[in-house]
Amino acid sequence: MAISTAGDTRQRILEQTLSLIGEHGIGAVSNRSIASAAGVALGSLTYHFPSQTQLLREALLLYVHEEVERLQMIAAELRAAQPTAAQVAAEVQAIAERSSGRLEEVAELELHLHASRDHELQEASARCFAAYEDLARAALEALAVPDPARHARTVVAVMHGLALRRLGTGERDATGTADALLTIVQGARAAPER
How sure is the predictor about 157, in pLDDT bands with cuts at 50, 70 and 90? Predict the structure, then answer.
């Protein structure tokens, strides 16, 4: 018989929180619903997470940590292959299609929106965007785009905007993502340095 550790319990609670947010939105998340989904006693939930703000912050940070690890592996594979800009754009579009509509994607956007109303979550949201921008910067560097830090926010904004569009319209097709990224790369290469 396996003995559940405190770390396992925390992890399960955080994963179920993300799942519930993705399925029903933050408004539907309560301590009772999370405890039930995670298979823990209500007291155990409040022991690990004394406030819902702390729970939401840590759920967002868990998502960020896992997502950044996943994206860093993809970026490392792309760099090792020394791809062209078109190959990178096509791979990013394929990744966007595979990610489209995942509950975690919905939960992440919900948490960012919630952070706009809850100042205690804004640091976690900022860390999430910083991680995406760092990855975008690394990809732009691999493509020899001048001043990649300057253009990383634009890449992240376009990717999140397209993801939001797919979620809102119910589309799963990420067509246009590659074109959008190629436009940014071409424009960044042609832009005068500041």
Answer: very high
Q: Are 93 and 177 in contact (CB under 8 A)?
A: yes
Spell out the residues 6+ positions from residue 26 whose beta carbon is closer than 8 angstroms to its own.
56, 110, 111, 114
Closest listed residue to residue 90, CA positions, set 160, 182, 162 = 182
Instruction: Note whether 178 and 93 are within 8 A (CB).
Output: yes
Instruction: Write the CB contacts of 175 (distance below 8 Å, at least 6 apart in sequence).
Output: 93
| Coil/strand/helix, residue 98 | helix
User: How far apart (Å, rounded) are the C-alpha atoms in residues 184 and 169?
Assistant: 24
Angle at 44 between CA 38 and CA 49, to 5 degrees: 90
Per-residue pLDDT tens over the stretch 54-67: 898 888 888 877 87
Task: Give me the amino acid identity at 153.
Answer: R
Residue range 141-150, pLDDT digits in tens: 878 889 999 9
